[in-house]
């Protein structure tokens, strides 16, 4: 079986360039590819189109790229925790495409499976459907949405092996699995990289065929976006 392991995040992103379209896994700040985002900041690549459920917060996640003006277009579902995102969108500095969350997930999954389009009732009769083909199925109107086309998908998993087989943990199993194999190159960063044959095949969520590069991540902060707790009695 092919060994997909690369030495570090820099080697995993060696051919990334200005103007690329990127998929980035995660839900809020949970399960985001922290190492990949940090490397994007270090590289200073510009004019990126980012496909992600969220845009991070002002000082973490994709918010770091927004502050450096590295993102040209943001394709997202939820962007309510980022003041800089709001400022750039309202000023016209940032092109924004807002998508229903389920539609975002399915457009990723369609790209993963090789389907050119999907039909969904979400957004019919709203601004989301303007200029798009619609069809009726079983008495219900649906909007045609194209599968995403991306240069890179960056995902984060709990554990993986050198062949790229991945196991996700908890809520980090969000948009990450759908983005695996949905781009020309999928790069996985993992908290623990183990030798081939170590993982239980019955526990694998994504097989290595969907992954082109995998590396051992480090220094994960795993921030909580909104901490809501009861006061002690």
TrEMBL record:
InterPro entries on file: 3-oxoacid_CoA-transf_A (IPR012792), CoA_trans_fam_I (IPR004165), CoA_transf_BS (IPR004163), NagB/RpiA_transferase-like (IPR037171)
Top-level division of the source organism's lineage: Bacteria
Pfam families: CoA_trans
Gene Ontology molecular function terms on file: CoA-transferase activity
The keyword Transferase belongs to this UniProt entry's keyword annotation: yes
Similarity field: Belongs to the 3-oxoacid CoA-transferase subunit A family.
Protein name: Succinyl-CoA--3-ketoacid-CoA transferase
Source organism: Confluentibacter flavum
